[in-house]
Amino acid sequence: MKITDIKTFTVDCFRTNWVFVKVYTDEGIDGVGEATLEYKEKALWGAIEHVREYLIGKNPLTIEKHWHDVYRDAYWRGGAVLMSALSAVEMALWDILGKSLGVPVYQLLGGKVNDKVRIYVNGWFAGAKTPQEFGEKAKEVSKRGITAMKWDPFGKSYMNISNKDLSTALECIAAVRESVGPDVDLLIEGHGRFNVPTAVKIAKELEQFKPMLFEEPIPPDQLSALKQVKDQSPVPISAGERLYTRFGYNELFEKMAVDYIQPDVSHAGGIMELKKIAAIAESHYIPFAPHNPSGPVANAATLQLAACCPNFCILEIMFSDVAYRSSITNESLEHSNGWITIPDKPGLGIELNEEACGTYPYQSHSLRHYTGSLTDIRPPETAFYF
């Protein structure tokens, strides 16, 4: 079997653009991957083209060799752009291997540990502005059987937060906690925006709400500083969505800088690399809670990992999406009481509709984190997809 082509499909999805990759072979078996890298799509296209040049004509089934050679030969190693391109293609190669053997990818990675996985939802707060509106939306989410939810209540604060803005954030969290009761887990997102003393101050205020975790309280560049926050925080700390490969995770594990790791299958190196990162985390007794706010292909790949990693803890997933998400792939998720069943189809278990992808071409979007528009992540027409 030989690789004959690799194509990229970029699909506007309101808050960003999904970037899908499809790898074709001379035996008619193709595979799909996802490289969605918010707001850096043009750089990503070029990186995928470089990987394509290497792979054309090669055997798609020697996945470890291809990953090694692409990573080695980049010379300027790592980083979000190269690793996202490599991650997507690696996903697609696993999809091809699974399809060629007629088995799900998780079977190739050792088989199931989990038949179903617990989820927490992101994006449920779309359009909310006041604490009361957050509380009302949270109540509706819990009525659908969701048992964990995440959001960023900190407005447009950066590095520091005023007492007034912190009070508003705490009012928002209090409103959500009151709406959903004590049994729903709350995950508080920091988006890597605070300095050490501010992050510690916030963490101490969060304790009263018994959150499951405080995510990315400081920027990702300095893990010693993250360790300082963890050591002073009365609530669990998570991070890792902006770390790439097991090599990038080395310092985090050495410092024991977090309580939960959150690598992203679309950025950290793909399926096998996340499997390796999760295994190292398991040896440190750190739960694996993958970052997964992207599109349907990344979700399918992350579900395969959730099936076969013993220290898998909880999976991020978007609560709703653009109404046409269901036309882009044949995604079909079985949800019940806050859990999703692992699909058993060959490969990643998902197919891309190339024609539908072309209906929603690339649109330029900008980062919302420091503009006060964090909740503007969905158009008026949205749809639940699980």
Describe the protein in words.
- This protein has helices at 41-55, 63-73, 80-101, 105-108, 131-143, 163-180, 196-206, 223-232, 245-255, 271-283, 296-308, 325-328, 354-357; strands at 3-12, 17-25, 31-34, 116-122, 148-151, 185-189, 213-215, 237-239, 260-261, 315-318, 321-322, 335-336, 339-341, 382-383.
- With 386 residues, it is of the alpha/beta class.
- The strands form 4 sheets. Strands 5-6-7-8-9 form a 5-stranded parallel beta sheet, with no helix packed on it. Strands 10-4-13-12 form a 4-stranded mixed beta sheet, with helices on one face.
- The mean pLDDT is 96.
- Report the principal-axis shape: globular
What string gives the helices and strands in order?
A: EEEHHHHEHEHEHEHEHEHHEEHEEHE
In terms of quaternary structure, the protein is single chain
Q: What is the mean pLDDT?
A: 96
Helix/strand class: alpha/beta
